[in-house]
Give the backbone structure.
Amino acid sequence: MRCEPARDVIEWRRQRLIEAGFLPVQAMDLARDRVDVHALMGLIDRGCSPALAARILVPTPEGW
Amino acid sequence: MPIIRSEPAPSLDRIESARHKDIDRDTHTDIAFDWVAGLNATGREREDALRRLHALMVRAAGHQVWRLRGLLADDSPGTIEDIVNLVADDAMTALLGKLDTFEGRSRFTTWAFKFAIYQAGNEVRRRQWQHRQVELRDVATPADPSPGPEHHAEAGDLAVELSRAMHAALTPHQRRIAVALLVDEVPIDVLAERLATTRGALYKTLHDVRSRLRAHLVASGHLDSQGGIA
């Protein structure tokens, strides 16, 4: 059974998230947390800031 | 859910030379078995059904992975056995999650084989693309507007307008998805895994892309309202 995404997949997601405007540290956390990158980018397309898109999809108490 | 392993994946020799004989023989006894009752039972009866199901999945996965082995960069016996076991486990988990949707419209073994065949295709494609660059690129350059020979002028004009539509009607992310799936031909399940999303979400984006492009080309007079070339 696959539990963790492969390291190169995490790195690939991190790069895409940085290109979309996320700070490197946020991008790494989101890439590791299996957050739906497609949904994140869709929200950014609709005018959300990266931070707001992350808060919508990952509503953690700490926020981003 | 723990996966009960009934037997290791078959060796390559067995896959190659005795595959059909094994499938025929085992399928014969499997057809008579009451799978749904066994898998919904408890205790030893369920364990026995799970063992038989895993053996069935290993056979189905072995068959399909063997067929697709030409797509693998590494088709060594050890790798194929690993893939067969992984596919069998994944297929079994998927089937058990959908057991209550089995309506008996086909044989249970036929229904079960579909899970293994689907998972085998996914896993082989995933490995095929594992070390390939999956780009998520935006289209940067419009199509060459020079029409070339006269009879290509119409197609050239449509291509230029399509390129305009890609920029005017799509969002940047829609363009990236469209280019990856339609131009670079990245398999949809590979891209879904990379983006940690679902195939359904990507299909929806493709549907939106097609709708927007069609609307743009109809508005510009390049397509008629039925989608044919005007």
Summary: Chain B has two domains: 12-128, 150-219.
